[in-house]
Amino acid sequence: MKKVWLITGAGKGMGNAIARAALENGDFVIATTRKEQDFTIWEKYQDRVMTAKLDVAETEEAQIQAIVEEGVRKFGRIDVLVNNAGRGRITNFEETSEKNIRNLFDINVFGLMRVTRAVLPIMRRQNSGHIINIASAAGYAQGPVVYHTSKFAVTGFSVSLAFEVAPFGIKVTNAAPGVFRTGFYDKNVWGIESDIHIDDYDDSRWQTAFVEDALKQKQEGDPAKLANLIIEAANSENPPLHLPVGEDAVRAMDSYCEKIKEDCGIWKEAASRTAY
Fold it and tell me: pLDDT at position 208, please?
């Protein structure tokens, strides 16, 4: 049976590639974008696409619910939710205002949760569904605090959500891409300007060079191949909870696991002594 997908941030980049791959696979797509004109309906797929304007950071839950209900009326169900919408910020934690930290979390974490909350009743009634959260290899690695912490939050949410929804036949996958050749690294997407300038950080500022290098579009990751992997995971009988996407993501996850294992190995005897 063909699947019905709801994909946020489907106007460009990874979200657009996933939407295209799902349609090419014969599936149906509810594509949401922050700006109404961001998603172009390819002529041959018009009868299998529904588009909706959705800013996950600002839209009230009732409006998200209305989009979900409209999608169910049109296609009958929602099989896969891809929480893809997100933004970046690579300013140092101490130089970033609380307002901008909250703004990033509103998009990357709380917006993702709002959409998930709207879709869960549908999947519970179906006793099936698959939630794919596009986190990041940053959710398993050290790096600029604000962005990486938001992706660690997505990873933690995915792991805990999987526990809660398993009784309803709902699967959760935390997809963790490395660097991919999309517009995500454009200057207007990544916040690189600090809110509070602290001189002590001047000798280790790398953000401008990072974005300038990223704009050369030489990242190893191919969005089309990422999309095909997401389709493969969605069609798997036993999809992974943790899905690294790209060799750099595999390295990040391996390093993270090795560090945990190393620390546990060194401290497990002392830790065991804390029992009554």
Answer: 74
Q: pLDDT for 105-148, tens place per residue?
A: 999 999 999 999 999 999 999 999 999 999 998 889 888 899 99
Q: Rounded distance, CA 26 to CA 45, Å?
A: 9
- Amino acid 205: pLDDT: 83
Q: At what angle do helices 223-234 and 13-24 cross, to 10 degrees?
A: 50
Q: Which pLDDT score is estimated for 132?
A: 98
Specify the pLDDT at position 180.
61
Which of 136, 134, 137 has its CA nearest to residue 252? Answer: 137
Q: Is the pLDDT of residue 57 over 90?
A: no
Residue-wise DSSP of 146-179:
HHHHHHHHHHHHHHHHHHHHGGGTEEEEEEEE--
How far apart, in whole angstroms, are the C-alpha atoms of residue 221 and residue 123? Answer: 32
Per-residue confidence (pLDDT) for residue 138, from 0 to 100: 86
How buried is 227 (Cβ within 10 angstroms: 0-12 exposed, 13-18 middle, 19+ buried)? buried
d(CA 272, CA 26): 54
Catalytic residues: 147
Answer for the pair 68, 7: CB distance below 8 angstroms, yes or no.
no
